[in-house]
Amino acid sequence: MKVSVVLTLVGYLMVPSDAAVLGRCVVAKRLQEGGLSNFEGYSLENWVCLAYFESKFNPEAVYENVREDYLGFGLFQIRNTDWCDKGRNLCHVSCSDLLDPNLKKTIECAKKIVKEKGGMGAWPAWTLNCQYSDTLARWLDGCKL
């Protein structure tokens, strides 16, 4: 019994070898190109910080939160219950579209979330890790944007 539980947990923790984890500067560039730099007053550094703490820069990440009964999709772990087609679909997007490494649909949906949910506080990871950080500038260190 214990062995099967451990193997199941290991299986959830393993990242497929073909996972499209993006580099920090690639993420920054795509987010900037998508118009998130200073969108609704939030710096590009805030968005890159959020992407790291939500998905570790993996645009194909899917996370199941059993306790709160939702799935998070993509770079920003956008919740299915409200924002994509497995829920209320307020972004008018397929949840699978939020897993595309080009990030276009993800960025469009993130903009809608920020406008409709009163800012980046819609993501608890941003509130905990980025909102009051005095080291946000490090997220763009060395990036040619």
What's this entry about, in short?
The chain is mainly alpha-helical.
Structure description:
With 145 residues, the chain is mainly alpha-helical. It is 39% helix and 7% strand. It contains six helices and three strands; from the N terminus they run αααβββααα. The chain has helices at residues 2-13, 24-33, 44-55, 80-83, 104-116, 124-129; strands at residues 62-65, 70-73, 78-79. A three-stranded antiparallel beta sheet has the order 1-2-3. A hairpin with a 4-residue loop joins strand 2 (70-73) and strand 3 (78-79). Helix 2 (24-33) packs across helix 3. Mean pLDDT is 90; it is low at 1-17.
* SSE string: HHHEEEHHH
Number of strands: 3
Count of alpha/pi helices: 6
- Mean pLDDT value: 90
Secondary-structure map with pairings?
Layout: H1 2-13, H2 24-33, H3 44-55, E1 62-65, E2 70-73, E3 78-79, H4 80-83, H5 104-116, H6 124-129
Antiparallel strand pairs: 1-2, 2-3
Helix pairs in contact: 2-3
Jot down its keywords.
single chain; 145 residues; mainly alpha; three-stranded antiparallel beta sheet; 6 helices; 39% helix; disordered N terminus
